[in-house]
Amino acid sequence: MILLDTSAIFALADARDPNHERARAGFERLLRADEPLLTHSYILGEAAALLQRRLGLTAALQFLEEASDLEIHWIGAEEHRVAVDLLRTRGRRSLSLVDCTSFVVMRRYGVVTALAFDSDFEAEGFSLYA
């Protein structure tokens, strides 16, 4: 199982993104390998907002419809609290609550790799798949 991050979702959707080809190639390899893709509700919200703002409502709605093919973990109150505590502990302005939530979810599922273009995953001890 691989976590699908907002950075990869946007790169897949926008052909002008510098990581578009890497994201597309990585995503296609994962599909061929029948590797399950995990995301969570905070990534869904962040990615949909980013897509809508930069590429339009149609792109956001298309993503949200296609996201039903992913394994989606819905964040609860306790996971939110743990992610906020992690954000506070790490104390880095560039690290987001969504990323910290990803780390919590990845640990819960035993996921060690993310399809992402965000070095914060590596800083937290995870691998990047791309």
SSE diagram, text form:
Elements: E1 2-4, H1 6-13, H2 20-32, E2 37-40, H3 41-55, H4 57-66, E3 71-73, H5 77-90, H6 97-109, E4 113-115, H7 119-123, E5 127-128
Parallel strand pairs: 1-2, 1-4, 2-3, 4-5
Helix pairs in contact: 1-2, 1-3, 3-4, 5-6
Keywords:
5-stranded parallel sheet, globular, 130 residues, Rossmann fold, single chain, alpha/beta
Commentary on this structure:
By secondary structure, this protein is of the alpha/beta class. The protein has a single domain (2-128), classed as Rossmann fold, CATH 3.40.50. The protein is 60% helix and 12% strand. The chain is built from 7 helices and 5 strands, in the order βααβααβααβαβ. The protein has helices spanning 6-13, 20-32, 41-55, 57-66, 77-90, 97-109, 119-123; strands at 2-4, 37-40, 71-73, 113-115, 127-128. Strands 3-2-1-4-5 form a 5-stranded parallel sheet, sandwiched between helices. α1 (6-13) crosses α2 (20-32) and α5 (77-90) packs across α6 (97-109). The radius of gyration is 14 Å and the shape is globular. The two termini are 14 Å apart. The model has no long low-confidence stretch (mean pLDDT 97).
Structure described in brief:
With 130 residues, the protein is α/β, with parallel strands linked by helices. Helix content is 60%, strand content 12%.
Strand content: 5-15%
Write down how many β-strands occur, each being a DSSP E stretch of 2 or more residues: 5
Structural class: alpha/beta
Level-2 CATH architecture: 3-Layer(aba) Sandwich
Average predicted local confidence, pLDDT: 97
CATH superfamily: 5'-nuclease
- The top level CATH class name: Alpha Beta
**Large-scale geometry:** globular
Distance between the termini: 14 Å
